[in-house]
Amino acid sequence: MSKIYIEGGRRLAGEIRVHGAKNSALPALAATLLCRGVSVLHNCPPLLDVTASIRILEHLGCVCRREGTTVTVDSSTLTGFDIPDTLMREMRSSIVFLGAIAARCGQARLSFPGGCELGPRPIDLHLAALRQLGLNIQEDHGLLDCTVQKRLSGAVINLSIPSVGATENILLAAATAKGRTVIHNAAREPEISDLAAFLNRAGACIRGAGSSIIEIDGVYDLHGTEHTVIPDRIIAATYMAAAAVTGGDLILRDVEVSHLTPVLDSFRAAGCLVEPAVKSLRIAAPDRLKPVGTVRTMAYPGFPTDAQPPVLAMSALADGPSVFVENIFENRFKYVDELARMGAKVKVEGRVAVVEGVPALSGATVSATDLRGGAALVIAALAASGVTEIDEIRHIDRGYADLENSLREVGANIKRE
Ligand code: UD1
Questions:
Q1: Where are the alpha helices (DSSP H) in 254-322?
Q2: pTM exceeds cut of 0.85
Q3: Distance CA 54, CA 65 (A)
């Protein structure tokens, strides 16, 4: 099994290009199912979850081609409407295929996605919304057997939580439904706007994406189109943390600065110089980081839960205490025990973590507990004295493409074995 080794204490300086957003690429790939013809997606990151999505599309009969970061999907050859359990388990977000398959095929069969490292990940909101759109869903022994009589129909849907995945499933199902769908309390994440942009380019009629009320006027069908996936804001936040903990000075290329607004304040509070420019951003660290105060994770435009672990790792080195309140996922502090092995002083009680802040961390043998928790360990290791060995790095590989090369090019001593 591969491991990452990092010898910490090196100052990072130079430029890193930020790749496309995983959380945009995955629903966009599901959306290609709705487009009768060929769709071309640029800036698709070379990640395991993208590979898993392509495998699902191929299983359904689509012809897919991947050249660099461009993925071409021809869905005119679609034959299937089921996703086997093995493929469903590879990636929890495969549930986003449900709305698209049901809308395109009039039926869908897939297994329930299991729990995940961050605690239970229910899909009740997805299912309730799709039922409102006319999908008949039988839940049986972990299987979802879904049928549509004729065509899905528009509905007014009030989401009790602005769930990203549920909003995406509704967009996909409603784009070709009969009549108008209105989503109240829709998720406002940039990835939702990106999916709506893709669908509109393919002929859909969606207004209001990015706000909490989205209106979708269903069209008969969608055509193939070309789209470029937005930059990954969580990757950008992670590299910012890497610069911060190493006393570094980095320029991040291909970022969408407006998507980063919720996290920039934390880096400024830590004493970093943050200079946004067009599609790029410079971050320069102070001699000693300051505490970030209280960070509360929230739905967008609040502080993103996915940036909580790397920013907490940064705060572990601050000159004073910081507090993190995790409001989105129940179990998102697992990685903190691993940080403690490196000398971090963090107390967790339920959804709150109090980080004391220490002058230095030391290298240790640690294990990535989940994707962003793994990234937090990388951040800590870059600053720690000595060598850190990180295993279970398959978690990190789900969301970070070419992490070692990107960090090595700006001065990190990092290798994979
Ligand atoms: C997406 C992102 C993930 C990010 C999260 C929150 C993808 C592939 N993943 O996940 O990286 O951390 O948004 O920004 O885009 N909930 C329910 N019932 C449901 C659905 C969700 O109770 O049917 C709850 C969840 O348990 C969680 C909260 O709602 O507590 C938010 O989840 P959601 O926004 O749906 O996250 P995902 O779409 O799974």
A1: 261-269, 308-315
A2: yes
A3: 9
Q: Tell me, in angstroms, the distance from the centre of ligand 1 to residue 288's CA.
A: 35
Report which secondary-structure segment, H or E, holds 310. helix 308-315
Query: Kind and range of the H or E element at 24?
Result: helix 22-31
| Per-residue model confidence (pLDDT) at position 116 | 65
With 60 as the cut, is the pLDDT of residue 115 above it?
Answer: no
Distances in Å between the alpha carbon of 19 and those of 110, 195, 310, 346? 30, 17, 17, 31
Mean of the per-residue pLDDT values of the chain? 95
Please check whether residue 317 is in contact with residue 357, taking contact to mean a CB–CB distance below 8 angstroms: yes
Helices within 114-207 (DSSP H only): 124-132, 164-174, 190-201
Beta bridge partners of 348: 353
Q: Which residues pair with 15 in a beta bridge?
A: 251
186 lines ligand 1 (CB under 6 A): no
Report the C-alpha gap between 374 and 370 in whole angstroms: 6
Report angle CA 9, 12, 17 to the nearest 5 degrees: 145
SS3 363: coil
Whole-number Cα distances in Å, 261 to 160, 240, 266: 25, 13, 10
- How far are the Cα atoms of 8, 171, 322 from residue 343, in angstroms, in the given order? 14, 45, 16
Confidence band (pLDDT; 50, 70, 90) for 114? Answer: low
* Candidate of 48, 49, 132, 163 to mutate for ligand 1, largest count of ligand atoms within 8 Å of Cβ: 163
Strand 70-74 versus strand 413-416 pairing type? unpaired
Q: What is the dihedral of CA 148, 153, 158, 163, to 10 degrees?
A: 50
Nearest Cα neighbor of 145 from 187, 183, 101, 181 is 101
What token pair was written down for 6? 């990092």
- What CA–CA distance (Å, rounded) separates 333 from 33? 36
Compute the distance from residue 163 Cα to the ligand 1 centre, in Å: 5
pLDDT tens track for 254-267: 999 999 998 999 99
Residue type for position 152: L
